[in-house]
Amino acid sequence: MPVLLEGSCHCRAVKYTVESNTPVPYQLCQCSICRKVGGYMGSVNIMGNTKSLDITRGKDKIKEYVAVKSFDEDDKPKEMCNSKRSFCGECSSMLWVYDDEWPDWIYPFASSIDKPDPLPAIPEDAGLIAIKRDSCPSHVPIPEGAKSYDGYGPGKGIEVS
């Protein structure tokens, strides 16, 4: 049974709802992109069902960012990511990530989720994982008790059992 997540940006110009079959913020991405757009430690995403996304306020305020995957020696974009990061154009709060490679899923940033409060706890047998450490400087810590992986870790993600 899906859980209805309610989210917003910091200035409340954008509000949205999305259903999630896995509403647990279990994965901290520490790649170079997520650390720059999400903050020092990275960003935590939750999986949502794309078709259930309903922007209830501020659709006109939403901007998209397609990140650069790699740069050349002159810092010019060499390769772009497939994913699109949506954020509020007023306050810059990150809202969700979407990638055409996985059209059924959208990944809201856990930091944008307001309800339910609290979100379901990480199951004891799952634990928090820190991913994409291969593009992360050593001064960025791994949260206590988290498993860490250079890439995405084992399996294909929480959406695949």
UniProtKB/TrEMBL annotation:
GO terms for molecular function: carbon-sulfur lyase activity; metal ion binding. It holds the Pfam family GFA. Keywords: Lyase, Metal-binding, Zinc. The keyword Cell wall biogenesis/degradation does not apply. PROSITE patterns: CENP_V_GFA. The keyword Ribonucleoprotein does not apply. Residues 5-125 form the CENP-V/GFA domain. Belongs to the Gfa family. This is CENP-V/GFA domain-containing protein. The lineage of its organism: Eukaryota, Fungi, Dikarya, Basidiomycota, Agaricomycotina.
